[in-house]
Amino acid sequence: MKFPALHISAAIILGLSAGTSAAETRTIPVGVSVDHASLQRHGDYMNVDLSLDLSKLRVESNRAVLLTPSIINGSDTLKLPAVGIYGRVRYYQYQRNNPGMISGEDETVIRASELPDSLHYSQIIPYADWMNGSSVYLDRSDFGCCRKLLAEAPFEGPYGYFGYFTPKWVYVRPQGNGEKHRELSGSAFIDFPVDQTVIYPEYRRNTTELAKIQATIDSVRGDGDVTITRVWLKGFASPESPYSHNRDLAIGRTAALKDYIQKLYRFDSGIIATDFEPEDWAGLKKAVDGSNLPNRTEILALIDSDMEPDAKEARIKKFYPEDYRFMLQTYYPALRHTDYRIEYNIRTYSDVNEIRHIMKEQPQKLSLNEFYLLAQDCQPGSEEFNDVFETAVRMYPSDPAANLNAAVCALERGDLDHAARFLDKAGTSEEAEYIRGVREALKGNYSAARAYFEKSSSIPEAADAIRQLDKLNAR
């Protein structure tokens, strides 16, 4: 019996660069030429096609010739169903005594008297990862009576080539960043009676505004892993009244807030630092710039001028009285505020189980190096592994190392678009250039990929990537 060739009408490449590779016609010392060979991946299967020139093959009546293709990649080998050509005597003998022929029921059987000059051989086999980079080889075995092996020719090839780019992933370890210094900041709008510098906690909205500062301090002060290193306060006044008077108010009111906080928390000497801005012209400019005041442009010009503060305010009040009254009622109250910043350090973690717990509860407490230590304890490519690097880049969105590692995670799961966004902030290190090359290679842009790999030539993985591109381009 003779098995028909198998065909697939539509190829699904699954986003991988795979295709046909024609082999140069080679005559091996078995009387058979391989005119064409191709290996193509179709989803979970591999399609193997060979064009065999059998015009010079001669098979004696009492002989049988077995041609066996194999898929080979290094030490991995898969033998494919063979083609058996039988002389007259051997054909009838095998038919009578062993219908399975020499190699089994999958064998394609041809009588020597019906031997065509060319044969199209095609097989569909399950695809395995090791087949990436494989080729087809062909061997011949001659048999006589009773399956006796009379002669054997070793594997000849390679014929064809199947391959798509398979990157080696490179993650980078962040540089040790020493102390983990953090800060929290905000603004409080504390009301003082006219011309006074004494804080009355119950006065107007002071209860709420003082609570904002206390809540910020308390959010870190009760954490045993945190040490507060500085509480910074800066008081601002609005531009009305003489500048010198506003300066005294800003100084006195900031000092009053410092005393209030010190009585609450009893910080060590030097922890609380103060500064002041007699008049918040920057805040006034921002408010006017975003307004629809009739004389907005003229007022902005005065604010930006080199005039003394008192002269500026007097001119605005004189020439634009309606605008001034609106500003005094609407904008000036917000200019009387205190900016604050709580600076603190977080202790270093070295136990990966502790780091794993903290990442789930308070990832903002971890350094990039601690994220990396945790990743080393995870299975590469696992959900937890990817989550570590994705959390790290959320905590450090501008850090090149965090973005580079996040880009690698995105590429591993096939998300080339997200990888591009991370790579935009991954810097210009050789590792970053290599991963940019990987992304281009996965897109099939081999020329662009090579340019990136050449920029990262000191990385061993880049040399391997270039070798892969050479094979792919040679198909």
UniProtKB/TrEMBL annotation:
SUPFAM superfamilies: OmpA-like, TPR-like. Residues 13-97 form the DUF3868 domain. The keyword Translocase does not apply. Residues 1-22 form the signal peptide. InterPro entries: DUF3868, OmpA-like_sf, TPR-like_helical_dom_sf. Keywords: Signal. This is DUF3868 domain-containing protein. It comes from Duncaniella muris.
